């Protein structure tokens, strides 16, 4: 089968061969996050999610910023004085910056990485 239209200069086979060459060249560039190595892409994406934003820590406080980081990476957070685990980034509690202190973290099957641990240095996690 050929591509629709009689004025096409390239046949479908030519287009596929051209696309194949272009995609091969792109796959050879390992610095790009969209390269063919999906493990590289997910590693890059996880690194982006784990990046520490010191301005955000200053603006919203250490516990809120750490909560945002943990939830963004798929972890769960429980606050001092609360029974339920916070699992949804979009339903983070609001209020005074020092009202919600992290008491416990469940990072099972999350994508937290050591580059994000600076969030924990600034947070005052309760025991």
TrEMBL record:
InterPro entries, A to Z: LRR_dom_sf (IPR032675)
Domain of life where this protein originates: Eukaryota
Protein known as: Distal membrane arm assembly component 2 like
């Amino acid at each position: 089968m050929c591509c629709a239209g009689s004025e096409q200069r390239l046949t479908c086979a030519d287009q596929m061969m051209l696309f194949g060459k272009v995609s091969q060249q792109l796959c050879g560039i390992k610095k790009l996050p969209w390269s063919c190595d999906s493990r590289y892409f997910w590693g890059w994406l996880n690194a982006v999610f784990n990046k520490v934003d010191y301005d955000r820590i200053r603006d919203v406080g250490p516990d809120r910023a750490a909560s945002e980081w943990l939830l963004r990476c798929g972890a769960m957070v429980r606050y001092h004085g609360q029974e339920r685990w916070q699992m949804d980034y979009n339903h983070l509690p609001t209020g005074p910056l020092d009202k919600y202190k992290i008491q416990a973290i469940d990072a099972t099957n999350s994508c937290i990485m050591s580059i994000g641990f600076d969030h924990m240095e600034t947070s005052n996690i309760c025991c």
